[in-house]
């Protein structure tokens, strides 16, 4: 366990969907997700926003360039009664097509159809849950708000959705 | 700056709306929000989920009991180029009515109408932004999923929304 991280964790995952409606998934070599199809994900680093962490993890694990579109959801939980473990899941738009698998950490990375993932016994529980919820709603990216100089923000973004905006 | 927290922060805020449509807001005595109406909020602690942190902060700051209903949104940013500062904002349902102000940290706590908050020059920028977005959509609480024993979760919740679920 990484002591730098303390007992409150925040991670980001990216769901990249290509023009054929296929989902970009990875098979990790470690952790509870070992050998299971799951979303590219990892811990947020100092100096980056949550959505930037999702974009970076997708790039590092799969070689795919992507940009944030919306917030799909949040997973929050507690591990062993003491670690607050949180993950925000972003919808990302792919900007490239060629997968380069990060073989140190992953067995595989691929764009797979929703049917293929639903029928594969090695699809992770969370991914299976998301496939059953599809089509997923989301909260839109709001960029450009200046929260005010006293806060010292050098980057700032919001994810919210309003029914009014959809009309 | 709290070193335990490192350079990746995660906080939770709660929006409690009463039966008159009034928003529960507080005026902090410190930080960039000093003297501004803002939502009860604070850092997540080890052993608690994000939504539990929102409920706890509302209780500590205002005395109001509440329960989580939905995820309204996410604020993510970077402070001074190095601190990843993140906050999830939950919609909470009030379970009590009597406000008890935490006077060590706050000048005031009150249920105020949206019009009152919009007209008050001391309403925070983020709160003003949310008031303009109203009515806000949200991602629903999904409880009861078992992610699998290998993960060691003692608590686990998801916030997602599907158009299918609304029908």
Key features of this structure:
homodimer, 167 residues, alpha+beta, Nucleoside Triphosphate Pyrophosphohydrolase, 6-stranded mixed sheet, 9 strands, globular, NUDIX_hydrolase-like_dom_sf (chains A, B), Nudix_hydrolase (chains A, B), NUDIX domain-containing protein (chains A, B), hydrolase activity (chains A, B), hydrolase (chains A, B)
Could you explain how this protein is built, in words?
2 copies of one chain form a homodimer. Helix content of chain A is 19%, strand content 40%. With 167 residues, chain A is α+β, with helices and mostly antiparallel strands. Chain A has a single domain, classed as Alpha-Beta Complex (Nucleoside Triphosphate Pyrophosphohydrolase), CATH 3.90.79. In chain A, the strands form 2 sheets. A 6-stranded mixed beta sheet of chain A has the order 4-1-6-5-8-9, with helices on one face. Chain A has a 3-stranded antiparallel beta sheet with strand order 3-2-7. The longest helix of chain A is centred in the middle third of the chain and has 13 residues. The first copy, chain A, is globular. The interface between A and B is large, with 66 and 66 residues. Strand 5 of chain A pairs antiparallel with strand 9 of chain B, so a sheet runs across the interface.
Oligomer: homodimer
Please provide the count of β strands of chain A: 9
CATH topology of chain A: Nucleoside Triphosphate Pyrophosphohydrolase
- Say which CATH homologous superfamily of chain A is assigned: Nucleoside Triphosphate Pyrophosphohydrolase
* Rg of chain A: 16 Å
| Spans where pLDDT lies below 50 across 5 or more residues of chain A | none
Supply the CATH class of chain A: Alpha Beta
Q: Number of helical segments of chain A? A: 4
Q: What CATH architecture of chain A do you see?
A: Alpha-Beta Complex
| Integer tally of domains of chain A | 1
Distance between the termini of chain A: 47 Å
Q: Could you estimate the helical fraction of the residues of chain A in percent?
A: 10-25%
Q: So what's the overall shape of chain A?
A: globular
**Residue-averaged pLDDT of chain A:** 90
- As laid out across the biggest beta sheet of chain A, the strand order is 4-1-6-5-8-9
Largest interface: A-B, 66 and 66 residues
Proportion of residues in extended strands of chain A: 35-45%
Q: From the helix content, strand content and strand pairing of chain A, which structural class follows?
A: alpha+beta
Order of helices and strands of chain A: EEEEHEEEHHEEH
The main sheet of chain A comes to:
6 strands, mixed
Family (chains A, B): Belongs to the Nudix hydrolase family.
Cofactor (chains A, B): Mg(2+)
GO molecular function (chains A, B): hydrolase activity
InterPro entries (chains A, B): Nudix_hydrolase, NUDIX_hydrolase-like_dom_sf, NUDIX_hydrolase_CS, NUDIX_hydrolase_dom
């Amino acid at each position: 366990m990484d002591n730098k991280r303390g007992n409150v964790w925040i991670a980001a995952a990216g769901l990249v969907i290509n023009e054929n409606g296929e989902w970009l998934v990875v098979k990790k070599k470690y952790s509870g997700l070992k050998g299971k199809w799951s979303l590219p994900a990892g811990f947020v680093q100092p100096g980056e926003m949550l959505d930037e962490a999702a974009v970076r993890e997708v790039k590092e694990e799969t070689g795919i360039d992507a940009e944030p579109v919306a917030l799909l959801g949040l997973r929050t939980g507690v591990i062993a009664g003491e670690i607050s473990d949180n993950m925000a899941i972003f919808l990302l738009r792919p900007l490239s097509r060629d997968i380069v698998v990060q073989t140190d950490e992953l067995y595989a990375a691929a764009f797979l159809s929703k049917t293929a993932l639903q029928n594969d016994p090695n699809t992770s529980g969370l991914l299976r849950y998301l496939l059953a919820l599809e089509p997923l709603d989301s909260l839109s990216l709001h960029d450009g708000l200046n929260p005010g100089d006293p806060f010292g923000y050098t980057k700032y973004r919001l994810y919210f959705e309003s029914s009014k905006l959809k009309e």
